[in-house]
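User: Good morning. I'm curious how pantoate would be positioned relative to this chain. Could you predict the structure with it bound?
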Amino acid sequence: MQTVTTLEMLRTALASLRAGGARIALVPTMGALHEGHLTLVRRAQAEADHVVASIFVNPKQFGPNEDLDAYPRQLAADAAMLEAEGVALLWAPTVEAMYPQGFASNISVAGVSEGFCGAARPGHFDGVATVVCKLFNQVQPDLAFFGEKDFQQLAVIRTMARDLDLTRPYADNIIGVPTVREADGLAMSSRNRYLSPEQRAQAAALPRAMQAAIAAMEAGADVAATLAGLEAALVAGGFASIDYAALADARSLAPLAALTAAPARLLVAARIGGTRLIDNMAAGPALK
Ligand code: PAF
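Assistant: Good morning! Here's the predicted structure, ligand included:
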């Protein structure tokens, strides 16, 4: 595996990977890799000739009081994991390479980016859309893979690709991969390492309470009352506060007051100590 840190090196490396019409898949990450990321890589390997992974802790998607400085950085260990998975190329730009002096553009996707994490983290999805658009233009992949763990992020990226008529990749070639979970159900996240052992044990209340809420709603329970019960269960289980717990249409992310014949998603963000955890699960009919 080759690691490249400048656009010039990236273009040279990509030209030789693409020789003979090989299909390239991109797996964008912020590093601190875990089994969830490696699952994206394996899916990408199965569907393309070569996998390019990127590692870039994107300052534009962190708010002023968020964890940009604390975010784990472990490039050598991450590179070793990617190499062991057979990744062909690692794109690991510096902040200066990604946002040179004078960088002045911003991509803002209305609608799907506005509620939930968009409301709780102003500017976050502009930062995500801007960097992902740049990564797409830099690597020009045939396919790109993202975790469903960040379900709203995936909707924002697909909307951006569709709205801006991107072709590398086409919106339909932006693939969402189901969330990988720990044995107790907690969604894998680079931020789980912020949890103390006690908080880590308490955090499993999140997927448990979500599954119980989905079972209740699918059995006909009132949505608002079920969501209130879910929030109460999380607080009783040790969570400090709930940013949101909502049922939404799985495609538009419009909030739903009741389950319908359309696929829905239960989305939750909650804080345990100083750590903000997010999770989402399908509810009602499956998304096709
Ligand atoms: O999901 C992430 O790790 C990041 O938001 C992404 C997509 C790599 C953009 O920085």
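The mean pLDDT is 97. The chain has two domains: 2-177, 190-278.
Let me know if you'd like a different ligand tried.
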